[in-house]
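Ticket opened by: R.M.
Priority: normal
Category: complex prediction / small molecule

The reporter submitted a protein together with beta-L-arabinofuranose and asked that the result be attached to this ticket for the collaborator who will pick it up next week. Submitted input follows.
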Amino acid sequence: MKSKHFFIGLSMVAIVSCNSQTEETKAEPTTEAKPPQEKEYLSQPLVSHIYTADPSAHVFNNRIYIYPSHDTATGTKEDDLGGHFDMRDYHVLSMDSIGGPVTDHGVALDIKNVPWAGRQMWAPDAAFANGKYYLYFPVKNKQDVFQIGVAVSDKPEGPFTAEKEPIKNSYSIDPCVFKDDDGQFYMYFGGIWGGQLQRWNHNKYDSAAKNRTKEEMAALPRIAKLNADMNSFSEPVKEVKLVDKEGRNFGEKDNDKRFFEAAWVFKYKGKYYFTYSTGDTHFLCYATGDNPYGPFTYQGVILNPVEGWTNHHSIIEMNGKWYLFYHDTQLSGKTHLRNVKVTELKFNEDGSIETLTAQK
Ligand code: FUB
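Result attached by the on-call engineer:
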């Protein structure tokens, strides 16, 4: 599947540089940020003064906090491993309610304050425990290997202070920290291709390992239980089993259904929903299971391909309604300069999810 782009002159987009100021922006973008040709979008960018992606949303203290990647035009050459996603800091966004004004709380964590980091701050997540807020983030270390770090704050919006080392035994990208009803936290993570998951077999790194071939079984996402310190795994990292309705593993050839990146887990009516992106076929899919480790059985598509190459999301419940946070490239038309959005998500009686399409 090809990514679909349209062009919008950069001069039309109001971009402010990163700073530590709090900035109020309207949930609706300014008219000058709209594309020249009229398209019908399911929703509009939540902010248009910076580029944001990979929105991990949480409700803390009855307010919605969004932990996105902060896309920037660094000029890094595009390559197959996503080198052009060359992000250097995180901002936290928040809002009282869906459709309300969005606050950008400024820089929450800068790569220069992460002692072990080399480059590329990718999709983060956050959690609240022990009276503190934890920001989990994947970044390449100085040897160019992705690991997952943690940074701590007394406030959901940060600023966050990074631990001196990455989480021991963590690797690859896209952490999702899920709290089960019994209070136990689990981290799901992993992403193939540029996210390097294919280089980690049996939790050992092999820099020469290649992407799986079409004949091979697809790589599986990973899970580990977190210790109460929220900064370490309490067990060896395990694979999360993802199967089709007949209980079969996906092959790499099933790339419209197999896991690529962007794990997000939530619980609905007692079932665990493991949701993810299929990457090179650009779908957001979901699979359900009876416990945090799976197996998870593939159920269908949540969101059809959006504008841009990547598709990455989070799902939360607030005041009895469910919401999908996602991104596309409406503002820039460029793969690596994305904007976050939100729309309502609907469940059918049987627990299946109504498939959404972001643009017509
Ligand atoms: O934003 C960088 C990477 O792009 C994320 O980590 C992936 O999930 C994809 O959205």
